[in-house]
User: Fold these one by one.
Assistant:
Number 1:
Amino acid sequence: MEKSGKLKTIRENHIFSRLYSKGKSYSGRCVVLYCQKNYGGKVTKVGITVSKSRGNAVVRNRIKRRIKESLRLLYPFMKEGYFIVVVARQASVSAAYCELADELYDLLKRAALLGVKE
């Protein structure tokens, strides 16, 4: 079954809280990745958070768009059945898009969330 390019997003606050407290974390210079198995479903869902301390709304939305686009390109290769939350760090404000994309790829690889396509 081929996954579409559209990301499935996490909307419930209790899932974010559970991932922060019980999920496995992987940190990089620009982002921190939290992940946990989704035992209730076979769909991988993604959440993105950017704190208000990172800048005004324009800056925060730019960071979210860059992270979302990087994840959208990697989404077809992600393993199914996980919750993933990406938290932006201060370095992501001045980071280039390719730097964010490379770091997300490395973190997903370290977390063993990238599956191999035949």
Number 2:
Amino acid sequence: MTDAYLRLPFTFDVCRLQRDLQRLQAHHWQQHINKQAHDGGWTALSLRAVDGNPDTIAVVEMDPGHYADTPYMRECSYIPEVLATLECQQASARLMSLRAGEEIRRHTDMDLGFEDGCVRLHIPIQTSTDVIFHIDDQPIHFGAGECWYMNANYPHQVSNSGDQDRIHLVIDCVVNDWLSTLFKETGYQKRVIHHKYGDPGISDTNVQQVIEQLEATATEAGLVIANRLRTIQQRDTTHARLKPTPEGAVAK
């Protein structure tokens, strides 16, 4: 189980989604504002935006009270039903397109994880198996009509090596009891990362240097921390030395 992405137990009608898409294709799709992550092939059309402004594709806040349907939403017959299926407040809703043969380069979008109180959901409308996400360096394909949560706090990127544009309905939702229960029942678990020395910046490769620097300070607090790090270091060294050699193996 990973907390980088999660498939939710919904499957939506792809044909009806694509009919809505056809009504909207002729409108002005705007290039994504993160120009460092793409070369012009990443575009969006806002269905819900701040003040209902169809020219606003950026998500700059997560207060649903500041968001409203844009005029484009009124042209859709099925997408409002899809949003109503999600029993939680919603901020932004956008159609996000990635041109065939192009990519969204590795980047992060902070404060967009379940634990932050906001989840970003993807519902592919037009896609193929040639569209691959890498989320926290884990490859995954989102199938058409499926509903996926992705933790945008992790580094992520997308490649579209197919011959058609990839288009997703992307919704930012506020976590409530309904979503919390849904995630729990679907098997979501927050990954617990154990740091051996209690600090993500200290590892086996630099712990000796850190110990020496702390000892050089000659302060009581520094010596206490240095002693704790040395105890962990020596404990693991002793454990490795005493570990039994597998039968038939040669100890080195």
